[in-house]
Amino acid sequence: DGGITQSPKYLFRKEGQNVTLSCEQNLNHDAMYWYRQDPGQGLRLIYYSQIVNDFQKGDIAEGYSVSREKKESFPLTVTSAQKNPTAFYLCASSPSPLYGYTFGSGTRLTVV
Amino acid sequence: KQEVTQIPAALSVPEGENLVLNCSFTDSAIYNLQWFRQDPGKGLTSLLLIQSSQREQTSGRLNASLDKSSGRSTLYIAASQPGDSATYLCCTTQGAQKLVFGQGTRLTINP
Hints:
heterodimer, A: seven-stranded mixed beta sheet, four-stranded antiparallel beta sheet, 0% helix, B: mainly beta, six-stranded mixed beta sheet, five-stranded antiparallel beta sheet
């Protein structure tokens, strides 16, 4: 079945550590996105990528980094510079804006 | 800048009722409008996608309409069931590269 796989489902990080969230899609979509969801704040865009080896900052990119070395993969690294990383992270992909977006099942990151 | 508003923030109705969820947006230059469902702790499940040239889409008991001129979309749920309880999110595009989401409507269907 085609879709987006996010792993792990739950992730715990100690303060000062970098962690990487995985996002893999087998939909052959060109564009991929990372969103952060916090209670009462809705979804906010972190980074997006339209093609391999190219990506752009979203609205809240500070403290995050991404790479897009393969069409299928768009990992997100939450660095120690992100002051409040505890949140639910969602990855999405799209073939083009006309055809909508598919989301993964999310990763819940908790700082301990 | 695109802004999306969903009203009401929460809704509780008895099973079997028909209901309407509302979504408004400020910029009519959109590619599409998409409705999602989110269960607690889960990802987003796409319900309906309306492209900018379309007026409505239907899937089973769900019907979504789009009026770009007024900046509004509605999601109609017929004969509601307890399994419909979830948060419903609408989102639309800002330019060709960004999605903007509403805050969602938390729906509870009481048996």
